[in-house]
Design a protein that fits this description.
Blueprint lengths: L2 E7 L3 H12 L1 H8 L2 E8 L13 E3 L12 E4 L6 H11 L3 E4 L2 H18 L3 E2 L10 H8 L5 E7 L2 H13 L3 H10 L8 H4 L2 H15 L9 E2 L7 H9 L2 E11 L4 E11 L11 E8 L3 E8 L3 H17 L31 E11 L4 H11 L4 E6 L8 E8 L2 E2 H12 L4 E10 L5
Parallel strand pairs: 1-2, 1-4, 2-3, 4-5, 5-6, 8-10, 10-17
Antiparallel strand pairs: 7-9, 7-11, 9-10, 11-12, 13-15, 13-16, 13-17, 14-15
Helix pairs in contact: 1-11, 2-11, 3-4, 4-9, 6-7, 12-13
Length: 434
């Protein structure tokens, strides 16, 4: 059995998990790969007590691994500085790459794949999206016969944990975020998670695989969850919906929609039942119909599972000609199509509105007239009873599907009414059935 030398760079939670999994499941891994996979080097600034490196060579300068005799460099450093330098250096030296770095692939993947193509090496990145869920393999291979029409994913566990706690316990966003940080679900600086940047990185990768287009992180509309109020979670439930932080990619004749934002989803939809730190991705193909992929989106075991699966795939095809390997984005490089990315105003969606309105006759009719003026139909409406000594009441409306431009125009005009107090809450709605 031919030996394959592996260099793991980064010995954090995932790096240690990968090293341990390769050791623990060595016989199973080698049987799948038909190769003897050996970790011959580790690049790490410090050791991790979670794994016993034994006699494995350790380089404190991780870049040195790219100059060594390893066949595959596993990049588990994270970020887009040292990790980027390591990956390009390793490719230049003819090393194959396995990475869990979604930011690196989303922002620099086009350059990385081009460099790898020119050197005849592979770049595998299953662990970059949704942890242990094999969604990249599903899109790149399992659904290859389909024209993908749309995909939608809960692809950030931190945000999903926060929204689940708000719904189940009525807690405030700031309170749940503090707990998420204490539990290790959120970083000390949670911006990437709560503002949707992490989900946008992952969505870009999924969309490129689904639609055969170059990676376009610059074109994603991104909106976070910090403004979600627990009352809207309650009202959404009354209407038969749940609020999730969703990444959506849709194909139309005009182009591609790429957007990350809070979204009302019918509670009857399976993805609406995904709670806590779990991830899920729905993909609609023209032949297969809707499919759902569910599992742990992070953690040492799930992410290491995806990293090792990539190592097996790369090891299997080390001797294969480059034109007989699965392409980096699932489509032949010369078949990639730089499709137009639509502005968010061109998106077609339904919407949830919540307004604080004066409790007097004629208010509802004036709002309904504005909706009509913008070509919007109201599907459902709830007007709450006023509290004691208050002259304003919550008015909740659910619209039918229309253009974002129509919805924003109606929102602007309603906010200008003297009978409406403050800004309207506006959350998009997706049925995920079509």
């Amino acid at each position: 059995m031919k030996s394959v030398n592996i260099g793991i760079c980064g010995l954090g939670v995932v790096g240690a998990g990968t090293f341990n999994l390769l050791f623990t499941n060595r016989d199973t891994v080698n049987a799948h790969a038909n190769r003897d996979l050996q970790v011959s080097r580790v690049g790490a600034r410090r050791d991790n007590p979670a794994c016993d490196l034994g006699n494995t060579v350790v380089d404190r300068d991780v870049l040195a691994v790219a100059d060594s005799d390893v066949d595959i460099v596993v990049e588990l450093i994270g970020g887009t500085t040292i990790a980027k330098e390591l990956v390009f250096k390793a490719i230049a030296n003819g090393k194959h790459i396995v990475t869990a770095n979604k930011a690196l692939i989303a922002e620099y993947g086009n350059e990385i794949f081009a460099a790898a193509q020119s050197k005849g090496v592979q770049v595998a990145y299953e662990a970059a999206v949704a942890g242990g869920i094999p969604i990249i393999k599903a899109l790149r291979e399992g659904l290859a016969a389909n024209q993908v029409e749309w995909l939608a994913g809960i692809i950030n566990g931190t945000g999903n944990f926060i929204l689940t706690e708000i719904r189940n316990k009525g807690r405030a966003f700031a309170d749940v975020l503090t707990e998420a940080q204490a539990l290790g679900y959120a970083e000390a600086d949670p911006t990437f998670d709560v503002e949707g940047i992490d989900a946008a990185h992952k969505l870009v990768i999924l969309a490129s695989l689904a639609f055969g287009m170059p990676l376009r992180f610059d074109a994603v509309y991104t909106e976070g969850i910090a403004a979600i109020d627990s009352v809207d979670v309650v009202y959404a439930e009354e209407l038969g919906y749940r609020i999730k932080h969703l990444g959506l990619a849709k194909r139309s004749e005009q182009g591609i929609e790429l957007r990350v934002h809070p979204t009302l989803i019918p509670e009857s939809c399976l993805i609406a039942q995904v709670d806590g730190v779990m991830n899920a991705v729905m993909v609609k193909g023209d032949a297969v119909g809707p499919t759902l992929y569910y599992g742990a989106g992070a953690g040492a075991g799930p992410t290491a599972s995806a990293v090792v699966a990539d190592l097996i795939d790369v090891a299997r095809s080390l001797d294969a000609p480059s034109d007989q390997r699965v392409s980096h984005l699932g489509f032949a490089e010369n078949a990639l199509n730089d499709l137009p990315i639509l502005d968010i105003k061109a998106a077609d969606t339904a919407a949830y509105f919540r307004a604080s309105v004066l409790d007097k006759p004629g208010v509802l009719s004036s709002i309904a007239q504005i909706m009509s003026n913008h070509g919007i139909s109201i599907e459902a409406i709830i007007q709450k009873e006023p509290h004691a000594d208050e002259d304003h009441v919550p008015l909740i409306m659910l619209t039918n599907q229309t253009s974002e431009e129509n919805l924003l125009g109606a929102r602007r005009d309603i906010e200008q009414l003297d009978t409406v107090n403050g800004k309207l809450v506006y959350i998009r709605v997706e049925s995920l059935h079509d």
